[in-house]
Amino acid sequence: MKSYQPNEYVVERDEEKCIRCKVCVNQCTYETHSYDEEEDVIRSKDENCVNCQRCVTFCPTKALSIRKNDSPYRQNVNWTSEVINDIKKQAETGGILLTGMGCDKPFLSYWDRLLLNASQVTNPSIDPLREPMEIRTYLGSKPDSLEMEFENGEVALKTHLSPQLTLETPIMFSAISYGAISLNVHESLARAATDYGTYFNSGEGGLDPRLYKYGDHAIVQVASGRFGVHSHYLNSGAGIEIKIGQGAKPGIGGHLPGEKVTGDIARTRMIPVGTDALSPAPQHDIYSIEDLRQLIYALKEATDYTKPVSVKIAAVHNSAAIASGIVRAGADIVAIDGVRGSTGAAPKVIRDNVGIPIELAIASVDQRLREEGIRNRASIVAAGGIRSSGDVVKAIALGADAVYIATAALVAIGCTVCQKCYTGKCPWGIASTDPWVAKRINPDIASQRLTNLLRGWSLEIKDMMGGMGINAIESLRGNRLNLRGVGLTDTELKILGIKMAGD
Length: 503
Ligand code: SF4
Ligand code: SF4
Description:
The chain is of the alpha/beta class. It is built from 15 helices and 23 strands. The strands form eight sheets. An eight-stranded parallel β-sheet has the order 11-21-20-18-17-14-13-12. Strand 8 and strand 9 form a beta hairpin. The radius of gyration is 24 Å and the shape is globular. It binds iron/sulfur cluster (SF4) (2 copies). One iron/sulfur cluster (SF4) binds at residues 13, 18-24, 42, 59-61, 63-64. The site of one iron/sulfur cluster (SF4) has 15 residues, from loops.
């Protein structure tokens, strides 16, 4: 069928600068560039370009640039080029429109409407270069009170403490499954988490045995498909996460296309090579909080009560009530993923229309758990659209203990958020399992870039805390007095539990 869709991008090559080295030809996995031997010229097929910027970055003479194709359609605020092209695409394929990464609709980013406080005159600020700043974070259930005992002049803790995850910075790498990304990317995340003293998350595809050595810094996920879940896997991680929902696709399951289910991925997931890995929408053994409790305790039992169990949900309308039930069911950590959370592949209509912003969810969950007197029983992890250390600090001030990052981590190793992860052709070697392309990620280099990102953000977090006169991250958690809103309605301010700037 002839396609009626115009190309989205236009490739521009400066022929004066081009030395016909063919780097762009080799780097592009969408076959945008080709070399015409007869005429000794490089040509481009604009219709193939997804604007991943791989060729532009690696062109040695800076001969390339890519620009958005000016809309050929008449300007219309309702019938935008995106809307028209999506309809054309579906008329041609008759299928669900897939996309990758997080929602890019211009919903309000509350992070950008929140401002932090800084000490002036009284309660002076703290200089992190000269004074110790504590950002170590412990995730897990905390007791209602602590009992001490004194023996032979020594003080000892009598209260039994639940297992905890110890983070040297309140930032972890969010769940990204092996298969959605290559082993090299998984290893880079694992190595950076180990080097910096934090955690990566296996995602729902199991853990390749070659990564078990990073188990002390792994959170292993148990999702509805139970891919790769066995006793050795559960015991290999430092923590376990039950995935109920994901911010990019609340209420639906996952899908890894059969073409990406190659040898090692199939073995890790415990499914035949080349079969589609479809995880069901619900966990088929969970239809109530009591069922969830059974799974939480089954996992605790399977790991001898040595690992905290997290439950991950998508941020939806009644997240606060759901989180309360999850905590009462015995979870040690509640991870909440907002509407801007990323994915390797999701139906576009779900990604862009379902869920709520993480800022509102975190504030309401923290508030509800405090009101019910159970906030200490579980830690809260915020995920979905954390772009900077400023967002991290604001998330913690709204009530989170720590955050998960995924898109930011992938950007650190080359991702340009082109949203084509679902094609499996990622030219940066990230969301691709093609061995030739996957080699573009060198775990030595990528893990260094990730460690640098964690270090940079951690230094900035200390700077912001110092400015507020806070020297321990514990004092920032849920400290909404240090936040003010700009351009928000009374209802929004009420849900966030903050005052208007100037008040
Ligand atoms: S990478 Fe740059 S210099 Fe090399 S062929 Fe492509 S456009 Fe020309
Ligand atoms: S991971 Fe690759 S395909 Fe996905 S958005 Fe980033 S650059 Fe594009």
